[in-house]
């Protein structure tokens, strides 16, 4: 997407040197910094400490991390080390394991002399495919927005609520949940987005709102607790979120608080859609609540908030007393029964095993 007058992806290779670069998302929206990643540990730190985040981007970053490691040392031991080091960074988003398994399967068949070249080619392909996948998700989601718009008075906006950041910064480009919004906006359908701030790390306030400003899409930032109230008053037509892992039975694991939005949507008859690339489906897992590992992050993310002071300096501010520990489960699971549909690159699936298999019949014997 455009930042200023330049088109950015969230991860890319320098056209001259081939070096891998990312947007360091920790400081947005106050500072826009690009950083070069080189050593395996750079990639592990960038994922673990959330310089990059969002399930599809974590996968693409891991693929480039393996490629950079292969350029330094293409041995089997180095490949195994890259897999283990990157896999240990974050536990919930399945795209990480998906990308690492893909890279390992490809590279273990290659002679060492060919591994670096093959790894970079595949990492580039994973990044390019993510862009196209998200574009297609947007086209399928656009039809849902269009249908709701048709029920409105001319010029009246479709109100879409989203949680966390499943925007272009969470993918290589387009985003998943935001792609239908970009497409609707470009098609001239009036939309308005309710952006959940998404405590504790405020990905909504810092990242999604910044993306909306950049795209010129009308929006309001709301506190995480406002969604139910807005739904009760008919001010939300549609919820679209992303997911970090979707089970073969259609449960979705996403940023903490997503489940509460789904409950409120269910109670108020508001359609609740989840947008995802198929790389986010874990075909081996069926019961999301019981089986998906939920990342527990530092309590400091809860007791402190990041922002820009009136003096213009960015800083972390403590909001709780000394001695109060923060509890910080980073994700929750929304059962399939609360999901209206799964917007994938192949179309909108019913949130069930049969629904997913209709779109992905090649997975019929998996898991
Ligand atoms: O902890 P994060 O910022 O990596 O969490 C991101 C989310 O929960 C997104 O909604 C999810 O990864 C889907 S991104 C298209």
Automatic annotation (TrEMBL):
One Pfam family from the record: IF-2B
NCBIfam families: eIF-2B_rel (TIGR00524), PRK05720.1 (NF004326), salvage_mtnA (TIGR00512)
Catalytic site positions: 244
Pathway(s) where this gene product acts: Amino-acid biosynthesis; L-methionine biosynthesis via salvage pathway; L-methionine from S-methyl-5-thio-alpha-D-ribose 1-phosphate: step 1/6
UniProt key word Membrane: no
Signal sequence residues: none
Positions of the record's site feature: Transition state stabilizer: 164
Top-level EC class as recorded in UniProt: isomerase
UniProt KW keywords: Amino-acid biosynthesis, Isomerase, Methionine biosynthesis
Matches recorded under SUPFAM superfamilies: NagB/RpiA/CoA transferase-like
Binding site for substrate: 53-55, 90, 203, 254-255
Single GO MF descriptor: S-methyl-5-thioribose-1-phosphate isomerase activity
Organism ancestry: Bacteria, Pseudomonadati, Pseudomonadota, Alphaproteobacteria, Rhodobacterales
GO BP terms: L-methionine salvage from methylthioadenosine
EC id: 5.3.1.23
Family in the record: Belongs to the EIF-2B alpha/beta/delta subunits family. MtnA subfamily.
Function: Catalyzes the interconversion of methylthioribose-1-phosphate (MTR-1-P) into methylthioribulose-1-phosphate (MTRu-1-P). Also catalyzes the interconversion of 5-deoxyribose 1-phosphate and 5-deoxyribulose 1-phosphate. Part of a bifunctional DHAP-shunt salvage pathway for SAM by-products.
Top-level taxon of origin: Bacteria
Catalyses which reaction(s): 5-(methylsulfanyl)-alpha-D-ribose 1-phosphate = 5-(methylsulfanyl)-D-ribulose 1-phosphate; 5-deoxy-alpha-D-ribose 1-phosphate = 5-deoxy-D-ribulose 1-phosphate
InterPro entries: IF-2B-related, IF-M1Pi, IF_2B-like_C, Initiation_fac_2B_a/b/d, M1Pi_N, NagB/RpiA_transferase-like
Protein name listed in UniProt: Methylthioribose-1-phosphate isomerase
């Amino acid at each position: 997407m455009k930042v200023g007058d330049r088109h950015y992806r969230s991860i890319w290779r320098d056209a001259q040197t081939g070096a891998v670069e990312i947007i360091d998302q920790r400081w947005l929206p106050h500072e826009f910094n690009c950083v070069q990643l080189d050593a395996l540990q750079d990639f592990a730190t960038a994922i673990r400490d959330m310089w990059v985040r969002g399930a599809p981007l974590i996968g693409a970053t891991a693929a480039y991390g393996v490629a950079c490691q292969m350029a330094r040392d293409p041995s089997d031991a180095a490949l195994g080390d890259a897999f283990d080091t990157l896999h240990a960074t974050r536990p919930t988003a399945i795209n990480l394991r998906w990308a690492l398994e893909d890279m390992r399967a490809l590279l273990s068949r290659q002679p060492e002399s060919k591994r670096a070249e093959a790894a970079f080619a595949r990492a580039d392909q994973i990044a390019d495919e993510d862009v196209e996948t998200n574009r297609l998700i947007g086209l399928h989601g656009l039809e849902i927005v269009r249908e709701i718009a048709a029920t409105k008075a001319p010029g009246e906006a479709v109100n879409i609520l989203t949680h966390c950041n499943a925007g272009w910064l969470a993918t290589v480009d387009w985003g998943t949940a935001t792609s239908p919004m970009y497409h609707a906006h470009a098609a001239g359908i009036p939309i308005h987005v309710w952006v959940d701030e998404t405590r504790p790390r405020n990905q909504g306030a810092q990242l999604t709102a910044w993306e909306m400003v950049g795209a010129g899409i009308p929006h309001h930032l709301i506190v995480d607790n406002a969604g139910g109230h807005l739904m009760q008053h008919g001010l939300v037509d549609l919820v679209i979120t992303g997911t970090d892992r979707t089970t073969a039975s259609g449960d979705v694991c996403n940023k903490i608080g997503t489940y509460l939005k789904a409950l409120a949507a269910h109670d108020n008859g508001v359609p609740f859609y989840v947008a995802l690339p198929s790389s986010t489906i874990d075909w081996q897992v069926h019961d999301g609540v019981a089986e998906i590992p939920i990342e527990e992050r530092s309590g400091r993310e809860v007791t402190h908030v990041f922002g820009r002071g009136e003096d213009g300096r960015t800083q972390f501010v403590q909001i709780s007393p000394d001695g109060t520990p923060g509890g910080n489960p980073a994700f929750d699971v929304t059962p399939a029964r609360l999901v209206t549909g799964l917007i994938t690159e192949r179309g909108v699936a019913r949130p069930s095993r049969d629904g997913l298999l209709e779109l992905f019949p090649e997975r019929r014997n998996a898991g």
